[in-house]
Amino acid sequence: MAIIYEQISKTFHLKSKDSSYVIKVLDTGHLVHLYWGKSINSSNLDYLVRLKNWGSFLANTDNIDEFSLEALHQEYPSYGNTDLRSPAFQLQLVDGSTITDLRYDSHKIYKGKPKLEGLPATYVENDDEADTLEITLIDKVANVRAVLLYSVFNELDVVTRSAKIINDSSEDVKILRILSSNVDYRDSEFDLIQLSGAWARERHVVRRGLTSGGQSIESRRGASGHAENPFIALVRKDTVEDKGEAYGFSLVYSGNFLANVEVDLYSNARVQLGINPFDFNWLLKSGEAFQAPEAVLVYSDKGLTGMSSTYHKIYGKRLARGKYRDAERPILINNWEATYFDFNDESIENIAREASDLGIELFVLDDGWFGKRDDDTSSLGDWFVNRDKIKNGLDTLAKNINDMGLKFGLWFEPEMVCPESELYKEHPDWCIHVNGRTRSEARKQLILDLSRQEVCDEVIKRICDVLASAPISYVKWDMNRNMTEIGSLALPAERQRETAHRYILGLYKIMDAVTSRFPDILFESCSGGGGRFDPGILYYMPQTWTSDDTDAIERLKIQFGTSMVYPSASMGCHVSAVPNHQVYRNTPINTRAVVAMAGNYGYELDVTKLSSEEKEAIKEQVNLYKEIRHIVQFGEYYRLKSPFEGNDVAWMFISEDKKEVVVSYVRQYAKPNAPFTSIKLRGLDPNGKYRLISEDSIFGGDELMYVGLNMPELRGDYQGTMFRFEKVD
Ligand code: DGJ
């Protein structure tokens, strides 16, 4: 059993692969956090429970002299008692008071890991993979229970956490704040890492030292968003890729989130993660329960690579689901940057025919095939084919493309409605809005109110009808705006601040219904690129369009940042035309392919307009990717040289069986008379021999890791190359 309860000291010791997480119940019933870090044997850390500091200004808990919650490290601090730091939980009772005092009531330890009702979460395939601890706390005055859920994975340094609140009283209560996890550290000697950016430059790695007071990242957009990802890491000052401690915090949620770090008056760091309390509250009627989303906490003493590798494993294999979790993903071609809205079935079939000659496996018809949509001003919601463009209908088009040897995929933006649409005419109140206020449009669209069951039902019906009408093998599920004027016509006044969270619950319901009904379809999520690249969506759709920025050089940073948490099999990466449509940069087609081959590979350009040399290059690239995709999609990934630190960028993959290695290198700018570059590989067997396939030369694993691999002299800007090794006996 990986969770031990020591009765005498009332201590829970949660043991994951190489780490320990220790919690204690005090005599007062308060739950304190004692330790999270590298595995320890002892379960009794009572000496860490300290009394108040001399000369402190802290109030005494239960009026016990020299004893205050604020001097302790807590598991799930609530508001209104003697801990005046940032709380994880706050309720409002019918008398208007906002004080909660949660104390231990009972606990359960069992094998396996339960599902979270209505929410995505990591899972086990058999109960031996994880153990779970449920600690029930109770506020006796309010008669409310909080069930803290902890699961530890036996083969991974992962602790998952969430909280559920149950109202056992006969009165209503209002949840003002319900975070999923709280971890108090005994110091604050950390750097904070976050993944920040904007549309077309998502998830850039930002690292800064912790300072006194609060530092937080959050979303108030109704989606996880382009600006911040629902992830932070606390790393020691000397932590680098291959050494040092790293603590990852990732939220399995797609809506407004808060990741907050508070460095307190004693220089302890408190780290919190959960639904953003900003503009949120939830009315909990007598007998009702509220489930908070799951936080996935990862510990690594092997640097950032150790942390990322654990996230890749758990998110790749125990969050992503369905047929494509373990299946190689097809090489696709998408017509968006080739045609935008200007296409018909003939031009589409021409692109598909050429793509088939090049060995591409899937054609994706992007935006513009439905309603009266010739630009982005109309028709979202009208999910019936535009016969002016697709004369013989989707079924015929899909079959014709299938006959060329390609599978057929289709774009949708199911969550939206354009005021210029049939759907809006029928149901003008189905969008998120507040009566009497402007319905602010973004890209001429409004957001459907997915907090309403009838809206969800209609979305499911419309999407499923299309999917059942033609041989569709892939869906790109897009979402292109954030929420403004948040309100729902279906909710009473006291529940208006539930709208944004109810929307996400509705979205999960829709995604669950559609993906379960079509288990053979590969779903790729998208939100203006990576505006909702989060673990919540990954549970329903195993891959996400990483960014609308397809420029190879920009993608270096975006993909590096994304790889901090998300596995390469979850990233959609395409070769697009030059000059690039986002930054107007010209990069060689070889470099574009090297960069796109770091994830699920595809093309997004008009292949009918390419020169014969470019077509030959694409044929070779497609063949190469078919040979290496099992390594890229399912192997171990290592960041070797960061685009945030220099001109040279490199990364590598090692196949699951450890026999094949792919190393990719991009030199961003040419330098005259440049020094030689050699790159040290990682993760190899130091005693093994590796054959560099292109040169048929043999290197020791130790040489490649400790001496390094010489990079060729590349001429010109934006040059990239790839090396393949195989392990020889
Ligand atoms: C935003 C997506 O990220 C693009 O790839 C494309 O699908 C457009 N939407 C279509 O409107």
Features:
single chain, 729 residues, alpha+beta, Beta-galactosidase, Chain A, domain 5, TIM Barrel, Immunoglobulin-like, ten-stranded antiparallel β-sheet, eight-stranded parallel barrel, 31% strand, binds (2R,3S,4R,5S)-2-(hydroxymethyl)piperidine-3,4,5-triol
Mean pLDDT, all residues: 97
Q: Count every beta strand, where a strand is a DSSP E run of 2 or more residues.
A: 38
* Individual helix count: 12
- What structural class do helix, strand and pairing data support? alpha+beta
Distance between the termini: 39 Å
- CATH level-two architecture of the largest domain: Distorted Sandwich
CATH superfamily grouping of the largest domain:
alpha-galactosidase from lactobacil brevis
Poorly predicted runs: none
**How would the global form be characterised?**
globular
CATH class of the largest domain: Mainly Beta
